[in-house]
Design the sequence.
C-alpha cells in the first residue's frame, strides 16, 4: 500500500507564511496567532520531515535547502486544496456538473429558449445535455436514470417514481391545408375536424396528448407522424387535418392555416418532471428557474 505523509495542513500553511515573511513576528500576525504556537507548528513539521526547514535567529530567518525544496510542494498542496474546496462547494450548490434535460419538440417554440437562456445566465459553468424526446420516452428515461429532468406534455395523473409540476397550459388549434374549406372559417369546431382524415402523433409517443386530442374529436387517423413539424408538412400536402397545441402556429408553412377551436376551452398541460426524491442541486436549480424565470 502506498505510504502517504501525514502533514497537517495548519503546519503547511504556517510554514508557507513564514517562508514568505522570513520573520516570526510578521508571520504570526498574518496567521492571527502568537509566536510560540507558530514556532511549535514549525518544529512539529520539521519533526515530520526529519530536517530543519529554517535557519533561526540570532541571525536572519532563512530557508534551509530542505525548506526551499518543500516550499513549492507546500504551496501546490494548499492551492490544490483551495481549488478542491471551491469545486466541491460549486458542485454542492449546483453551479457545476452536467444536467441531462429532455424536452418535447413543440416546447422549442415556446418555453425552452427563454428557460435555457435564464438557466445558463445563472449557472454558466453547468453543461447541458439537451435531448429532444416525446413524452413517453422521456418518462422511461427519467425512470431508468438516463435523464435528470423532462419538459413534456400531458404527464400521467400519478406515477410513484416521478414528480410533476405544471409549467404552463395552452389551447389547441386546428391545423388545416390553406385551401381547405374549414380554413375559410374564423373558428373551427372539433366535430367538424372529425369529418376529415387526420394526421396525428402515434399514441406510443405521448399517450396523454394523443388521448386528449382523440377525446376532443374522435378523428379518422390517416397518417401518423412523431414530430409536429412533420405533422404540419403532411397537412400542407393535403393528407389530412390535425389538432395541435397553439404554439405550433410558430411553424411557418405557406400552405398551412391555423384556426382557434370553437365550442371548447380545452387546453394542453406542459409540465416539468423529475425523479421523486432526487436531491441533486442541478435539478433543484432547474426547477427553481422554471418556477421563477424572472
Sequence:
Amino acid at each position: 500500500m502506498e505510504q502517504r505523509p501525514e502533514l497537517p495542513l495548519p503546519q503547511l500553511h504556517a510554514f508557507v507564511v513564514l517562508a514568505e515573511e522570513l520573520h516570526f513576528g510578521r508571520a504570526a500576525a498574518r496567521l492571527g496567532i502568537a509566536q510560540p504556537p507558530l514556532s511549535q507548528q514549525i518544529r512539529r513539521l520539521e519533526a515530520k520531515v526529519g530536517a530543519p526547514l529554517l535557519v533561526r535567529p540570532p541571525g536572519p530567518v532563512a530557508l534551509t535547502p530542505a525548506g526551499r525544496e518543500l516550499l513549492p510542494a507546500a504551496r501546490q498542496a494548499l492551492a490544490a486544496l483551495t481549488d478542491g474546496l471551491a469545486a466541491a462547494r460549486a458542485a454542492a450548490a449546483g453551479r457545476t456538473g452536467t444536467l441531462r434535460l429532455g424536452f418535447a419538440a413543440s416546447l422549442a417554440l415556446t418555453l425552452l429558449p427563454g428557460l435555457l437562456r435564464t438557466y445558463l445566465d445563472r449557472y454558466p459553468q453547468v453543461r447541458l445535455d439537451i435531448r429532444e424526446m416525446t413524452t413517453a420516452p422521456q418518462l422511461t428515461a427519467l425512470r431508468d436514470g438516463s435523464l435528470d429532468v423532462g419538459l413534456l406534455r400531458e404527464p400521467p395523473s400519478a406515477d410513484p417514481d416521478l414528480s410533476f409540476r405544471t409549467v404552463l397550459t395552452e389551447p389547441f388549434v386546428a391545423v388545416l391545408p390553406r385551401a381547405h374549406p374549414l380554413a375559410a372559417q374564423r373558428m373551427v369546431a372539433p366535430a367538424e375536424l372529425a369529418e376529415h382524415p387526420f394526421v396525428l402523433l402515434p399514441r406510443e409517443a405521448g399517450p396523454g396528448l394523443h388521448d386528449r386530442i382523440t377525446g376532443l374529436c374522435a378523428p379518422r387517423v390517416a397518417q401518423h407522424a412523431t414530430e409536429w413539424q412533420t405533422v404540419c408538412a403532411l397537412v400542407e400536402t393535403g393528407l389530412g387535418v390535425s389538432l395541435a397545441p397553439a404554439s405550433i402556429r410558430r411553424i411557418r408553412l405557406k400552405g398551412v392555416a391555423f384556426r382557434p377551436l370553437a365550442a371548447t376551452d380545452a387546453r394542453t398541460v406542459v409540465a416539468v418532471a423529475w425523479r421523486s426524491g432526487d436531491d441533486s442541486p442541478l435539478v433543484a436549480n432547474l426547477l427553481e428557474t422554471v418556477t421563477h424565470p424572472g
User: Anything to note?
Assistant: DSSP finds ten helices and eleven strands in the chain.
